[in-house]
Design a protein that fits this description.
- The protein is about 0% helix and about 45% strand.
- It has about 200 residues and is mainly beta.
- The protein has one domain (about 20-195).
- Strands 2, 3, 4, 5, 6, 8 and 9 form a 7-stranded antiparallel β-sheet that branches.
């Protein structure tokens, strides 16, 4: 079983090594999280969130642009599992979708995500929004892959409306896209860096 752990932007950069340029002093506990599910080696068997808390609390897991939500409660020092619709995962290569997942809690929690598929299960810890830099740069650490459908990839999740993202490829070419809160962008066959600009700061 393959299990790849990594960080995200809200970007989620859910499941294949994305390395933030600076990772010191980052907390995994918070009350607001954004995430999304990347393409696996096939349609997922299940998409699960695990929410843990030091103190009893409650909250909401929602798909802001898709009309789906589920409330949750978690006891002190406990964990609750939330199973999401499997159609939230990207399955068609490079493209934009409205599948960003938002998690909010009334008290501090930690969130973990698992994309379940036989022989290819991926997992990640989700960073809370305050742990995301205002103007971060992320580098996609990837490798050559000759098997069709198994190329390196990344996922970006918008956490604010009208957020411009610049993607710079190793050959110097680049492109910019604009994401609204809850939109996700997956790119396959990728190597390079992602620059995220907070709205209004250039």
């Amino acid at each position: 079983m393959k299990q790849n752990l990594q960080n995200w932007l809200a970007i989620i950069l859910c499941f294949w090594g994305v390395l933030p340029a600076s990772a010191q002093g980052i907390s995994t506990e918070g009350t607001e999280f954004w995430m999304g599910f990347m393409e696996n080696n096939g349609p997922p068997d299940a998409l699960d969130l695990f929410i843990t808390a030091k103190e009893s609390t409650s909250g909401l897991v929602s798909l802001p642009l898709g009309g789906w939500s589920q409330a949750f409660s978690v006891s002190a020092n406990g964990t609750v599992k939330i199973t999401l619709p499997t159609n939230l995962a990207h399955t068609t290569g490079t493209g934009l979708r409205n599948t960003g997942v938002k998690i909010t809690a009334n008290d501090t929690v930690s969130v973990f995500a698992i994309n379940n598929l036989v022989f290819s299960t991926d997992a990640t810890v989700i960073l809370p929004r305050p742990s995301l830099d205002v103007k971060p740069t992320y580098v996609v650490a990837s490798y050559p892959q000759s098997i069709a459908g198994l190329e390196s990839q990344y996922l970006i999740v918008g956490v604010e409306n009208a957020t411009p993202v610049e993607v710079v490829n190793p050959n110097g070419t680049s492109f910019t896209l604009t994401l609204n809160a809850g939109q996700t962008y997956q790119q396959k066959k990728c190597r390079g860096c992602i620059r995220y600009y907070h709205p209004g700061t250039g």
